[in-house]
Amino acid sequence: MKNERWFDLGPIKKLKKHKLQHIIAGDVLIALVYKNGEFSATSGECNHAKGPLGKGHMEGDYIVCPWHGWQYHRKTGHAKPPNYAACLPRHSVKTKGAHLFVNLRPQNRRAYFPHPPHPLARKVMRRPGPIRIAGISTTPMNKVLKRYSTSEHLLETALNHARSKLKAETKLIKLRDLRFNHCGGFYSIDEKACTWPCTFSQFDEKDTLSEVYEALVFWADVILIATPIRWGSASSLYYKMAERLNCIENQIMVYNKRLIKDKVAAFIVTGGQDNVQAVAGQMMTFFSQLGFFFPREPFMGHSRGWAAEDMNNNVEYVKASSELRVEAKELVERAISMSRSLLGKRHKIA
Q1: Alpha-carbon gap, residue 159 to 157, rounded angstroms
Q2: How far, in Å, CA of 169 to CA of 141, rounded?
Q3: ∠ CA(226), CA(134), CA(332), 5° rounding?
């Protein structure tokens, strides 16, 4: 037939040695399966993010994508229920002598699972209005046995000042109140496997880190990150969040697409241990890679030092310190001033 394009895949004896293979047949990627004494072929590109299906593995009759685990039937090409409507192009195979051939003209068109675009996939645009500040508290805390947090106290002081005196819009996000997955490390498989929106945000309805993505990418002009010092480092929740923010930075590296534009970041670091500068330095390095700018004196910190093993006194000191409250207010003032300079005349600011 005129519309057939048969391609020689090679000796059948050799091809039988592998259950699943990734094959580049001319200009077509093929996932070739050998099971129960027969060959079957589908497109080698996953519907989700074009992952190389032939480099995955088999679970029963399903090809499992090595990037994010999507599954497709080896013969029909249909995705595993409940995503059955999604379907890969299927390719006919035939034997001729001792060789296997595949028809590069697929039997069917690729079909996608019908769903609306993810909210985070929309165009990034700043809405007119006042300066908006998102505060993110990264302090871990038992929800039942609540305690006082020095970093969160100073963060709330800064947000209250920005809202009441500087007429900014503010919101406070407490990471401990969110339920979100650890980073899946998809970048370690392939840089294009780290997607925007994050794969977990797309497919896990219980993952609530979208609240942070919404704030950083779409809503806020300024972000204030507050963390306690834990063994000389930022909190474990901070690092859990930071790993999931790699999908923002990865858009720059892979697609030259910048999700963070004209935004300011500043930091509050407190604890019973030293290392304020090192913690703030790591945070500044990371957020600069995402695309944030920093005001003059971009962080404030407090520590009673390594030898002062008296956290009860530390808490009381922070509670009573008017100097630290003033410093928190001045930090947010500098951040807002920087934000106004960046936004300039290109945006309507109340």
Answers
A1: 6
A2: 26
A3: 70
Triad 324, 264, 260: Cα angle to 5°: 150
Q: Which residues contact 230 (CB under 8 A, 6 or more apart)?
A: 236, 271
8 bridge partner residues: 101
Phi, psi (deg, nearest 5) at residue 129: 145, -175
138-187 pLDDT, tens digit each: 999 887 888 889 999 999 999 999 999 999 999 999 999 999 999 999 99
State the helix-helix crossing angle for 246-255 and 276-290, rounded to 10 degrees: 40
Q: 178: Cβ–Cβ under 8 A, 6 or more apart, which residues?
A: 208, 209, 211, 212
- Per-residue pLDDT tens over the stretch 298-316: 999 998 766 666 677 888 8
Q: What are phi and psi of 262, to 5 degrees?
A: 55, 40
List the structure tokens of 286.
Answer: 């990371």
- The gap from C-alpha 93 to its chain's centroid, in whole angstroms, comes to 40
Closest CA to 227 of 241, 238, 239: 238
Burial of residue 75 (number of CB atoms within 10 Å: 0-12, 13-18, 19+): middle
Residue 332 CA: distances (Å) to CA of 191, 223, 335: 36, 9, 5
The pTM is what?
A: 0.86
Could you tell me the domains of the chain? 6-103 (2.102.10.10), 119-339 (3.40.50.360)
Tokens read off for 178? 């969110």
**Pair of tokens at residue 69:** 């685990």
| Calpha distance 269→221 (Å, rounded) | 21
What's the half-sphere exposure (Cβ side, CA atoms, 13 Å) at 282? 14
CA 152/CA 135 separation, integer angstroms: 9
